[in-house]
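Database export, one record per block. Field names are fixed; values are copied verbatim from the stored entry.
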Amino acid sequence: MTRTQIQLPDDVYDRARKVCESREISFAELARRGLEYILSVYAPPLGASGDWQPPRPRRLGWKGLSDAEIKEQAQLTATETTLARRRKK
């Protein structure tokens, strides 16, 4: 078992102490149970792949342009964009 220290606001500590007294458990036991609960709710299940991948992006690009055309437009500098607009007029 690992020993650790935590800092709590006074009101949280007081409320936790009252729970400990009413349940007749130690503060350490309350903290362990609380952490176990939070981990069961938020942590990935055991055995799940540890290789996190970001979600796949939605296709929100400019309508009517291919991925290559979007990339080309995104890499243009402001000056190049201005010159391209002037040429179209």
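Remark 1: The longest helix spans residues 27-42.
Remark 2: Helices lie at 10-23, 27-42, 67-74, 78-88.
End of record.
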